[in-house]
Amino acid sequence: MTELRIPKLASLTDNQLLTSLAAVDDIRECYRVLEKGGLNVVGEVLKGQGPFYEMDHYPKEDVYDRETSSQYYYHAHREGHAEHGHFHLFLRNAALPEGAEPVMGATGEDRVAHLVAVSMDAWGYPTDLFAVNRWVTDESWLPAELTVRAMDHFAIDHAYPSWPVNRWLTAMVRCFRPQIEALLYHRDEVIHQRQARSLEQVLEDRSLEITGTVPIDVDSWADRLEAERRRRSNTTNKQGSTDYSLPLPS
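Given the sequence above, the corresponding structure tokens read:
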């Protein structure tokens, strides 16, 4: 079995570190305004959508930002798994590397690549990130390298169905970028290991659904990021720099 390796914090650039820390602030602000109204992320997506049926997409027509070519939906289908449901996050054609044609799935202007899925508990908070085989979302299959290159384009910058939810999902991708990147590269390794058959057969193999899962906790990840920021600041100051403290972006 291929090991899923999360990059060490020390390997992150200063910009990546500060971007993740800034995203933590966005995530916490979304929680603050939702909790103040007795709301949560999942409840906002399901609000006004009628009964919650397994496999249906919520909202009904998905959420799409035409300016960023970003898309998501929420649903449930994992029987026996301790989750309420999960978000699937995508990038569509204009956000993907130009000229990169998928091995399988929609091509040309119809390309759509799956970034990650976010598992949610019954209280509306994230528990895991996971990657999937191609058939699960019927995506355009691009190598991890190309999908990772496009990842920073993901952003839902409008208020439908909920401004806090859209801002939260955008921040989750920024915050947990190292984990998402690791999941995508690990996904490709898992697929490669099964290629005694053709790649197309592996990508349609119904026995391979989830290729990798990473548990997440915003607070503990924030603590680790902040500790790394302080370590770098202290190291730089000891080397004689004047008041260099890796300030967060404004």
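Residues 14-36 form the longest helix (23 residues). Try to locate this feature in the token string yourself.
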